[in-house]
Write a structure and sequence with these properties.
It is built from twelve helices and six strands. It holds the Pfam family MMR_HSR1.
Length: 285
């Protein structure tokens, strides 16, 4: 795979603004995709927040392979991060973010109050890659639509202060990637789940990676969804032909319509039709 570069100009501006505002924050919320706990972790953001209390929010837990997710949660907790598994879409565990934050900042709040500084408002910044669910999470937190939501990356373009409750303010930030994905697995994982735009990488390459990954880690899902008995023994094109036949993605002449098969495959992955999946297993092996 060619080295992926997808870093629009507004992302340079966003990174600069994050660096400027981070000093105002009591806590940082780093939202990552529970299916991609490694690939959705921006290393540039990690450098910026390393000296701030950081709560890792594993979002979209309903879409993630639970066993793989638990391994990643343990991995990050061993590195000193606080963690919480959430679903910004249906609100699962979102109501725990405030109380968890108070626990994390307990000593800071007590020190401030002991000095007579009267710690009143907790300020946090929410960070993450595009399309990870930041705006949906904010709308859940305040129980109304205050942030624009979209199902494609790059919807939020500027920072926005949100008052969650009288003593909790949150700074929403645009999704930020990093200039280059050195690990090709990261680029493919982000493309498969829709974190980067679908035209960033050739769709046939993305689907080839997805099929190879599913053959290695989830062959049973291919069998259940597409009636493929022994996926590991089949070539990529053979699997596409089989999906095309089972799902009716054929041309008038009876040939496989590969563009339709690519769309079917990615839609099934992103909508949980293939079950709960995780795409960062190779980084833990």
């Amino acid at each position: 795979m060619k080295q992926v570069q997808w870093f629009p100009g507004h992302m340079f501006k966003s990174l600069r603004e994050i660096k400027e505002k981070i000093k105002l924050m009591d806590i940082v919320y780093l939202l990552i995709d529970a299916r991609l706990p490694y690939s959705s972790m921006n290393p540039e953001i990690l450098k910026i927040v390393e000296h701030k209390p950081t709560l890792l929010l594993f979002n979209k837990v309903d879409l993630a392979d639970k066993r793989s997710l638990e391994r990643w949660v343990n991995y990050y907790e061993e590195k000193g991060f606080y963690t919480l598994q959430i679903n910004s879409q249906n609100g699962f565990n979102v109501n725990k973010i405030y109380s968890r934050s108070k626990e994390i900042l307990k000593e800071k709040i007590e020190r401030a109050n002991a000095k007579g500084m009267n710690f009143k408002i907790m300020r946090g910044m929410i960070l993450g890659i595009p399309n990870v669910g930041k705006s949906t999470l904010i709308n859940q937190l305040v129980n109304k639509k205050v942030a624009v939501v979209g199902n494609k990356p790059g919807v939020t373009k500027s920072q926005q202060w949100i008052k969650v409750n009288p003593d909790f303010e949150l700074l929403d930030t645009p999704g930020v990637l990093w200039p280059k994905f050195e690990d090709p697995n990261v680029g493919y994982a982000l493309a498969i789940t829709g974190a980067i735009k679908d035209d960033t990488l050739p769709i046939d390459e993305v689907c080839h990676y997805a099929v190879d990954y599913l053959k290695e880690f989830y062959p049973q899902r291919l069998k259940e969804r597409y009636e493929i008995e022994d996926a590991q023994s089949l070539e990529f094109v053979e699997i596409l032909d089989h999906i095309g036949k089972v799902r009716g993605a054929l041309s008038k002449g009876g040939e496989t319509d590969y563009d339709r098969v690519y769309s079917i495959l990615l839609t099934d992955i992103r909508s949980r039709n293939l079950g709960s999946l995780s795409f960062d297993a190779r980084q833990l092996s």
